[in-house]
Amino acid sequence: MRGLKFIEKFKSTQVHALNQQDASSGGCNGCANGSKLSNHKRTKFTGSKSNKTKSGSVAQALLPYGLPSTDLLEPSIDPHLKPIHCVKSLADLYRRFETCLESDKSMLFIEQYAYLCGLGDAKLLRRCLRSARQYAGDLHLKVVLSAWLKFERREDELLGSSSMDCCGFILECPKAALISGCDPNSTYDHCKCFEENAKSNLGPIVEKFVCLSLEEDDSVTFCVRDKEISFVRNKIASLSSPFKAMLYGGFVESKRKTIDFSHDGVSVEGLRAVEVYTRTSRVDLFCPGIVLELLSFANRFCCEEMKSACDAHLASLVGDIEDALILIDYGLEERATLLVASCLQVLLRELPSSLYNPKVMKIFCSSEATERLANVGHASFLLYYFLSQVAMEKDRVSNTTVMLLERLGECSTERWQRMLALHQLGCVMFEREEYKDACYYFEAAADAGHIYSLAGLARAKYKVGQQYSAYKLINSIISEHKPTGWMYQERSLYNLGREKIVDLNYASELDPTLSFPYKYRAVAKMEEGQIRAAISEIDRIIVFKLSVDCLELRAWLFIAADDYESALRDTLALLALESNYMMFHGRVSGDHLVKLLNHHVRSWSPADCWIKLYDRWSSVDDIGSLAVINQMLINDPGKSFLRFRQSLLLLRLNCQKAAMRCLRLARNHSSSEHERLVYEGWILYDTGHREEALSRAEKSISIERTFEAFFLKAYILADTNLDPESSTYVIQLLEEALRCPSDGLRKGQVSSSK
């Protein structure tokens, strides 16, 4: 009966626009054009009649693109793997990990990463990447995973750092990544980057080796045109089997004292370098151009030791993108694995900026380029998974993203990898409004076993006019599998009226973390003039899952209700999460809206800000506290302790990436050594380096006994040791912290910790 009713909906003349977008409507988040919102509807949100015109004009100025519309609301399709039974899939992964080979563990953690991506827990995802790097023995895997970990930490935000700087640990060290082999127990140790390596003066050595006399009775001369270079016969013969056969086998050259080398593609300087190498086994005596010639020579005559030496030396010379772009072509041509790995590492550690370099993308994007990388063992699913995630984060609908995802599909060897590549291609094509291609990729992903891709297929079918087919497809998923929240959320898109609300309510019951049902119900209530009920509805999701889209919607609703102070609070809190956030579908910067709202609220003096902060922190109003601190930072951006306090709030709100950004900014703006050490300690603690974090805390205390340093030390120890003796020591540290100068808010936190 339900299906028959749905067919009748499409026979009627009523138009049901799932996501009607045009230039004036704003797009995917569901904002209608300002002109579509009638003055009559606006007056429902205002107070007395005398204030209607004034309030309406203010709201119109603050909402130039109108209010959200239910007709245009549509949840995004999750671009990550979304198994029907997530817990079962993760349990299966754990069982496989317990029985698999050591060499397979790294990619199992990447598979775990793919399944957990949809949860959005940055700390959990970073733990997966760290574990994958811990068990990576292959050179290529180590290079990619080290760069990925570096990308996730965004180390470039620290003052004075560069992409190739080492954080001091093997896990992310660029030099350690270029050493083959795996020792899972040492990857969390310190690397040797900061050890002093005495370098000898090589100038005199070159002259010394060049001037050494030859054993005349066992010499052979190689000629390049009119130039002659003398070699010790047994030394050049030891370079490779071909030379040994030529000089001691049955070839005519074995009887000659002079051999013509003019037609073998080597220069006089190159051949002289070969002679020096035969006696010294060193290539670091020569300029890069000569070493490249030696590499080519070694490849042509199968001199494996010489090739390895050239490969390693050239790899050590790669320092920036310019070096990498020059040397990677030589490495690919000569199949120098280590050199290509070193170049690849620089390009990856420069992400996301290198993503916009056409020369860099030429190396990765074409099928021919992938084949060249594969020839030296540097084309993998992992590489393209990393590249495609960065591309999707920066610009999901770009041609670069499409090409990288196509290469991802070509490198897929396991079923979960094919599912992921095909599903993400479907998501990208859907957002590019190439719906037929989206149908193809979603269907292929579903055929590979990814049931959630059928939701994308239904959306794409709806877009091309196959409305009933889309509805029937979602219904079949619900009937064939154990129902989950997203299934009913998807079916609600093809329903109207009460049936739509019933599906959304059931979706919320099955999965309270889905934000779309709350957003839809809030906007629906707003359209009915129940503005306060709309705010209460969106509050339900914000209280336990903070996200920028929900904060933005609530700010809109507060503007519609003429509650500009609350709207300002939400906008300021939103900017603490994403400092460059653009409101109204990317049309108005959040900073600009703050300026507009400031005209309609009483300005806050520094004293007002502190009073409000104490009030809101004490009442555990985290969003309010976040907003006040952000307002204080607008007035005085150099206050590192405010950045630090902001990071604590963001961590409490489970906004890990934003919290780490604030910590780094606090570290950058710190005015004293002991303060900087505390912030670095928190960064190290949050990235898993507890011993180093503890060392920073103790060093800070040795410089100056501060509340923050004692609290950091106590926090680390409390999280590390749970025995009674340690607990007593932690309490003593907290008591020491309370004796140090600090504001009442932090001391209150310590008292509650005790």
Computed over alpha carbons, the radius of gyration is 32 Å
In what order do the strands lie side by side in the largest sheet? 2-1-3
Largest sheet: 3 strands, mixed
- Mean pLDDT, to the nearest integer, reads 82
Termini separation:
62 Å
The low-confidence runs, each spanning 5 or more residues with pLDDT under 50, are 1-54, 196-217
The helix content, as a percent range, equals 55-70%
The strand count comes to 4
The helix count comes to 40
Oligomer class: single chain
Structural features, described:
With 754 residues, this protein is mainly α. Among the domains are: 86-193, no CATH class; 219-317, Potassium Channel Kv1.1, Chain A (2-Layer Sandwich), CATH 3.30.710; 360-548, Serine Threonine Protein Phosphatase 5, Tetratricopeptide repeat (Alpha Horseshoe), CATH 1.25.40.10; 670-746, Serine Threonine Protein Phosphatase 5, Tetratricopeptide repeat (Alpha Horseshoe). The protein contains 40 helices and 4 strands. A 3-stranded mixed sheet has the order 2-1-3. A hairpin with a 2-residue loop joins strand 1 and strand 2 (227-232). InterPro entries: BTB/POZ_dom, ETO1-like, SKP1/BTB/POZ_sf, TPR-like_helical_dom_sf. Pathway: Protein modification; protein ubiquitination. One of its GO terms (biological process) is negative regulation of ethylene-activated signaling pathway.
